[in-house]
Amino acid sequence: MRLPALTARPVHRLAGLVRGHPVIAAATAAVLLAAVSLTALLAADRGTHPRAANVSRNYRACLLVSPAGATDARLSQESWQGMQDAARSGEVNAERFPTPTIDAKAALPYFNGAVQHHCELIVTVGTGMKPATEAAARANPHQQFVIIGATSAHPHISAIAAPADPGRDQAGKELADRVSAFVSGRS
Prior knowledge:
Layout lengths: L4 H16 L1 H21 L16 E7 L4 H18 L4 E7 L5 H13 L4 E5 L4 H10 L4 E5 L8 E4 L10 H16 L1
Parallel strand pairs: 1-2, 1-3, 3-4, 4-5
Helix pairs in contact: 1-2, 3-6, 4-5
């Protein structure tokens, strides 16, 4: 087989160089072996290996957790469970951010941080977070919010009712299911 003129000269030079120098021949063989091994490794069946999902295009929902009493803590826990359930679909990223205060003015930087993280839905819990959530909604008019366990007349704040009897065994599961359905319905 005859090589084209453009490739024949470099190939013949390389062959001549390799014939006279065993170190260069060994190095060339090692490079070729590495290239073939890498090609075989990259071409292996990828169906059996785990793949990372492209999460950057997923709908992002963020829970801002406030320092609160036992009632809000339980609501926060069940809400977080619902968000994680929604995230199992693979189309939602659920994130959780602590908010050390419920004061509207002091909490605004934490809400703004969630907006900067591109949270498409910001979830808050409890009546204590209502003033801070409303202040954040006024400051970020294009952001969507949901407050759990409280209501608001602001057009960008949705509400999910807390269970009527939070002590009931199924109350937490029902709230988690409502939060999951709400978040999944937005993605």
